[in-house]
Design brief:
The protein is an alpha/beta fold and 430 residues long. Helices cover 54% and strands 9% of the residues. The chain contains 19 helices and 12 strands. Strand 3, helix 10 and strand 4 form a beta-alpha-beta unit. Helix 4 packs across helix 6, helix 13 packs across helix 14 and helix 16 runs parallel beside helix 17. It starts with a strand and ends with a helix. Bound molecules: D-arabinaric acid and zinc ion. The site of D-arabinaric acid has 7 residues, from loops.
Length: 430
């Protein structure tokens, strides 16, 4: 089926009703395609159920999500220590009262809880918390995983897998039987950002490394990466970096990148994901909710891509101010794939702005979104909200195309949406 106006002359001869009905038709088509295309969620903090209580789900986990905890503290006098001493349900009660009962839950994180509950078929309202809790108690985890993935229309979820997390490592050491919908990503923050500590761990696991990072230590780090590649079969390696990240620099991060991680990526063909811009522990009293952001100097990324054109990099950046610069680097280096609206940028106004910017500078050669979900139920709202925005944006863009006389087909729209929702990323990884 073809959409739209076949030429400017044709367009000029159309009445405004005809134009808007064409646009409505196109909107309907884009909506149907975006909603029905299963996505690959390429960065989350969710786990395969075989990892036991590392997989968080349910209303209390949603309410104590660190995005909400940070917001709740803005409107309460409760001392930080007192909140952290409460048990999970009491913390959730406090957040519910503060953010959902004492004021309207207008923020994106609050709205998200309500979207997820609504799509799950639950009634929401200030007094509904006990009933909602009861409903969650009755859900068998197995079917709940499928229900959330269906409501978010996800075909796969990529986890964040850290060898440095003892609870997680313990599960991997038992060679678990895995749920194939959950893919893996090898997280390397301690290795790249805290060599003192990471080195001790590597030593205790039998790798012959030393504090000064001799050449043989770098070889041992490569051996460690290879072992974890064997163990978990990751899609990519990843690290979250501060806005001050610079490369090349005279520090252990550059040394480990240059002499271990990048050579490993080159040999294995695995991409390295750089998530740049997080300022850890701006307010440590907020614990996980205490991280902030800063504008980064993306010259570091440019240097990495330029120096290693045979290595694949994935990148997302946290500061709104860095987004245009990131796209321009993407235009210069085909070994760079840009993905998702990360964390503080995962709010409708910025998703809209960033996705539009990316479409305009990169066409469809990027991955539109990842959820970063820490609680399973969150995939429902994060994907529903983002798909809504994609539908409106793509309708705009295809309208512009059709105004030039370019014929649009369902197949072409479907191909583009596939690429934006995961197929482009998979192609880049191949
Ligand atoms: O989005 C988050 O939940 C953050 O706390 C971080 O985990 C961030 O996404 C990261 O992966 O470093
Ligand atoms: Zn994350």
């Amino acid at each position: 089926m073809f959409y739209g106006f076949h030429s400017v002359a044709h367009l000029m001869s159309m009445t405004s009703e005809q134009i808007s009905s064409s646009r409505a038709q196109l909107h309907g088509k884009v909506q149907q395609i975006v909603q029905s295309t299963p996505a690959l969620d390429m960065h989350t903090h969710l786990y395969d159920p075989v990892f036991g209580d590392l997989l968080l789900y349910g209303i209390d986990e949603q309410l104590i999500y660190h995005y909400l905890v940070a917001e709740a503290f803005r409107s309460t006098d409760m001392p930080y220590e007192k909140f952290w001493q409460l048990d999970k349900q009491e913390q959730a009660d406090h957040v519910w009262k503060t953010l959902f009962m004492d004021r309207s839950p207008l923020s994106e994180a609050c709205r998200g809880v309500l979207t997820s509950l609504n799509k799950l078929g639950l009634e929401t309202g200030a007094n509904q918390l006990p009933a909602i809790r009861q409903w969650f108690r009755e859900q068998p985890l197995e079917s709940f995983v499928s229900q959330c993935m269906d409501l978010a229309n996800l075909r796969a979820i990529c986890m964040t897998n850290s060898p440095f997390d003892p609870q997680e490592k313990n599960v991997w050491d038992q060679n678990p039987t895995r749920d194939e919908r959950f893919l893996t990503g090898l997280r390397l923050d301690p290795l790249l950002l805290d060599w003192n500590d990471a080195g001790k761990h590597l030593k205790s696991w039998g790798y012959e490394v030393d504090e000064n990072l001799s050449d043989s230590s770098c070889q041992e780090i490569i051996r460690f990466l290879n072992d974890w590649k064997q163990k978990i079969n990751p899609l990519y390696l990843m690290v979250s970096l501060p806005p001050t990240f610079s490369y090349p620099a005279n520090d252990t991060t550059t040394k480990i990148l240059k002499e271990a991680v990048i050579p490993f990526c080159r040999d294995s063909g695995l991409p390295l994901a750089l998530m740049i811009g997080v300022k850890r522990a701006v307010n440590p009293s907020l614990q996980l909710a205490g991280d902030g952001l800063g504008r980064a100097d993306l010259v570091a990324l440019e240097s990495l891509c330029a120096e290693n054109q045979d290595v694949k990099f994935l990148c997302t950046v946290l500061s709104r101010e860095n987004q245009q610069e990131l796209c321009v680097i993407g235009r210069k280096f085909r070994n760079l794939h840009i993905f998702g609206c990360w964390w503080f940028t995962n709010i409708p106004s910025i998703i809209e702005e960033m996705t539009r910017l990316r479409l305009e500078l990169l066409g469809t050669s990027f991955t539109a979104q990842h959820s970063d979900a820490r609680v399973l139920d969150q995939v429902i709202y994060k994907w529903n909200h983002s798909r809504q925005i994609m539908i409106d944006l793509l309708t705009d863009k295809y309208t512009h195309l059709s105004q030039t006389g370019w014929p649009l087909t369902d197949q072409a729209i479907q191909r583009d949406v596939n690429n934006l929702l995961g197929a482009g990323f998979e192609e880049f990884c191949r």
